[in-house]
Design brief:
By secondary structure, this protein is of the alpha/beta class. It has a 7-stranded parallel β-sheet with strand order 3-2-1-4-5-6-7, with helices on both faces.
Length: about 375
């Protein structure tokens, strides 16, 4: 079986990292992979060794109608058995149209839980034989919009558990961020965009610091809100307690050394950063939004209402005040992530969708 993957992300985190994991897993199971991605995208190098071919094409987003014809040309050259579109930002509709023009079956991954107009969703997803959601919460969104239940399959995202299970080298945070080692480090791992809710944790920070002045908040990620977040940090007098660490490619070394991870989102498809933190055994507080409860449920973390600053502060303080609870939740998170969100489960789940589209005998 040859699968042509379309991924529009330029950086190797979130959805693009999942695509890289998937391509490697499919390759190890004997499938041929072809990758189409933007020029200069990090996934080209990361997934290249597991692909028969990588095509870096101009991808201009929702208005780049020409992408249909560029992708169509690649599909005709490769003649894949199936096209798997992994991204929005124009790639979903245009990818589906290109596959339809070439009469090749196509599936699309849906990684976000924000609703679309029902008529748009029904029309768009007609282009695809299956829609693969990374959480049950996203599947429910699509069902409410009228997408047929038999068309929507949930295959959760995954994490390389072994990569985050190495334990903490006590020097890591000191070397990376100039900390003394006496701080309590609370991490937020998310793009700096509005729906990730950084502002809610910053609003809660003064109350947290009043009880635990040794806390340092480290924000991992990059995005358009960096300036706004820095302004809020300054306005609240938090400059000595908040560090914007930017994008890091060494999270497997850093995460096991964090005391707590907070995910104060307004909307979230699933939360790959929570999978990473859980694999590292870090206790977590998350907003009850989207797919977050699918990770932190069953006592694997604390959940609070989205945007509820007092509840967020209370949950963080509860964990900071109780080391035994932190230890218990961290262990439960590691067990849950290892059991439900493994790479093998994600790869086999996607492969099962491919085979259902192409026929049970597809290899």
């Amino acid at each position: 079986m040859t699968v042509l993957h379309v991924e529009a992300g330029r950086h190797l985190y979130g959805g693009a990292l999942q695509v890289r994991y998937l391509i490697e897993g499919l390759s190890r199971r004997g499938l041929r992979n072809v990758l189409v991605c933007p020029r200069g995208a990090a996934i080209a190098e990361a997934a290249g060794p597991f692909c028969d071919r990588v095509d870096e094409l101009p991808m201009g987003g929702d208005l780049d109608v020409g992408f249909v014809w560029r992708l169509r040309r690649v599909i005709r050259q490769v003649q894949p058995d199936l096209v798997h579109v992994h991204s929005r930002r124009g790639a979903d509709v245009f990818g589906g149209m290109a596959a339809r023009l070439c009469r090749v079956p196509a599936v699309v991954s849906r990684r976000v839980d924000n609703p679309e107009r029902a008529w748009v969703a029904r029309l768009k997803y007609r282009l695809f034989h299956r829609v693969i959601t990374i959480s049950q919460a996203i599947r429910e969104v699509l069902l409410r919009e009228g997408v047929p239940p038999e068309q929507v399959v949930c295959v959760p995202s995954a994490v390389d558990v072994a990569a985050y299970s190495g334990g903490c080298d006590g020097r890591v945070l000191c070397e990376a961020f100039g900390l003394s080692g006496d701080e309590t480090v609370v991490g937020v791992i998310a793009q700096l965009i509005p729906r990730k809710g950084h502002r809610y944790l910053l609003e809660a920070a003064p109350r947290i610091l009043q009880a635990h002045p040794q806390v340092r908040f480290v924000f991992f990620g990059q995005g358009p809100l960096e300036g706004e977040i820095r302004e809020q940090v300054s306005r609240l007098g938090l400059a000595a307690h908040v560090l914007l660490a930017g994008f890091r490619d060494d999270l497997p070394r850093i995460l096991p050394c964090l005391d707590l991870v907070v995910h104060p989102v307004e909307m979230e498809g699933l939360g790959v950063s929570l999978l990473q933190a859980g694999a590292a055994g870090v206790p977590m507080v998350g907003a009850r939004a989207g797919g977050v409860p699918e990770i932190l449920g069953d006592d694997a973390g604390l959940l609070v209402p989205p945007g509820d600053v007092p509840a967020l502060a209370e949950a963080v303080l509860r964990l900071l005040d109780d080391p035994d609870l932190r230890l218990r939740l961290g262990g439960a998170a590691r067990e849950r992530v290892s059991r439900r969100f493994s790479l093998d489960a994600m790869v086999d789940g996607n492969l099962a969708v491919y085979r259902s589209v192409l026929g049970k005998g597809a290899g």
